[in-house]
Automatic annotation (TrEMBL):
It comes from Nymphaea colorata. The keyword Signal applies. InterPro entries: GH (IPR017853). The keyword Signal applies. Residues 1-24 form the signal peptide. It comes from the Eukaryota. Keywords: Signal. This is Glycoside hydrolase family 5 domain-containing protein.
Length: 134
């Protein structure tokens, strides 16, 4: 039960570590607070959940709109971070290690979704699932 209650926090930490290692944002911690390194002011994370743990292991909606459009919408709604739901089986089931986004969708016969994903987010379609998740 204790581990289950830690999963949301671990998900956020892992997401932040991916994000921070990719973009080197000027954020750090001071005691229990996240602070802006430049100003020293506290940063309040206002997060939204984005489902990505379902069978295809791809964030929902990427077959409906470009990633940039979804990101912009999230930002204009006042959110400054995204919590992707954590697909544990992506990291615990070795059969997912070489699976691409396309092959994941093919597994579930989601042919129309593949075509839509190619239109809206063609850069993702042939990535390994782990890279698309990052």
């Amino acid at each position: 039960m204790a581990m289950r209650s830690l999963l949301p926090a671990l998900s956020l930490l892992l997401l932040l570590s991916f994000h921070l290692s990719s973009f080197a944002l000027p954020l750090s911690t001071n005691s229990r607070w996240i602070v802006d390194d430049e100003t020293g002011k506290r940063v309040k994370l206002t997060c939204v959940n984005w489902v990505s743990h379902v069978d295809t292991v791809v964030a929902e909606g990427l077959n409906k709109q470009p990633l940039d459009s979804i990101s912009s919408l999230i930002s204009t709604m006042g959110f400054n971070c995204v919590r992707l739901t954590w697909p544990l089986f992506l990291f615990t089931n070795e059969s997912y290690s070489n699976l691409t986004v396309r092959s994941s969708f093919q597994t579930f016969n989601l042919i129309e979704s593949i075509a839509a994903l190619q239109v809206h987010n063609p850069h993702l379609i042939d990535l390994p699932l782990i890279d698309a998740f990052k």
